[in-house]
Amino acid sequence: MDPKHPLSELNRGRVYFQIMTNEADQTSPTFNRYSWLYRPPTLHSSRKVQAPRIFPCFLLMLGSLLAFAFPVGAASNDHTTIEFKQGDKVVKVLSLDAIRAITPGVSLKIFEPHENRERIYQALPARPVLDNIFGKEWEQAREIVFTSIDGFQPSIPVEKFLAHPAYFAFASPDNAPFTTTNPVQNNEVVQLGPLYLVWDNLNSKELLASGDSDFPYQVMRITVRHDAPFPNILPPPNASAEVKRGYTHFRQHCVACHTINGEGGGKAPELNYPTSVVEYIKPEYLRRWIMSPQSIRYNARMPALPRGIPNAEQVTEELISYLKVMSIMKRDPARP
């Protein structure tokens, strides 16, 4: 279509811009077709249209829409640097290229828990990277917290890194998209970069059984901690063995996404403050929600407990016991 045609995309866009900048030709057929959007005054061919009162709000809205419709590029959605912290202190901020220069990369085949199939990634062994940035002292730390762009934030015991080979994946082979399709989250396609923590799990039943909780993608910050990372989610010292097991399950399966008393991951809702989930969800529905969220809500984005987890019903009951105890230990996250 001729770009000057009244209904062409280019001409409509030009008229929108002219209206917003007070330069519109009120005799234009396109203007007459769309001018109702802008509440113009009585039109006279010898005068310019006055900017409408809604112009500032409309401009902001238009800018937001254009940002989604016409992204600047892939880099605008990726963090180009990764921050490394020891406690609250920033140790280094490195680009992906700088991290790749630390140690040779490998081609690693794993069982991809997000897709339930084997995949190959280009990856860096995690321990040489951590040694280079933190020194050997990181091995004496308690946990390593991985913060993702989407708010996912697992805290993984250091002993797991000492016992099992971990890797920082940074690309797919043969320039294939560095993405994953997650069937337990409505087949959502997500970018994995800049870093994706993976484990050499094909030869480890323990790693295979742990699911995807310790596979954070879009990692933008890595924090080594010598103290407990989330002190306000701890049950009381005199809690029963069942409650303490529930806390362990919560740490393993839930805290990367959810918060209790404001502590944990930022991807999913707070579970305890000001009202606990055990106070507003009936017990039978809470059990189903934990074990199979999509049996409660169509297209639920929350994943179920990992497939193959032993004694899933017992794990669910212990999780609920922990949540019940925490419901009487509420703490306002806004107060220190």
What does this structure look like?
The protein is α+β, with helices and mostly antiparallel strands and 336 residues long. Helices cover 29% and strands 20% of the residues. The strands form 4 sheets. The protein has a 5-stranded mixed β-sheet. Helix 8 packs across helix 11 (312-326) and helix 10 (283-291) crosses helix 11 (312-326). Mean pLDDT is 81; it is low at 1-25 and 27-79.
How big is the Rg?
A: 26 Å
Number of alpha- plus pi-helical segments: 11
Largest beta-sheet details: 5 strands, mixed
Q: What is the CATH topology of the largest domain?
A: Sulfite Oxidase, Chain A, domain 2
What is the number of E strands?
Answer: 13
Assigned CATH architecture of the largest domain: Alpha-Beta Complex
What is the name of the CATH superfamily of the largest domain? Oxidoreductase, molybdopterin-binding domain
Number of domains: 3
Strand order of the largest sheet: 2-1-11-5-6
Averaged pLDDT: 81
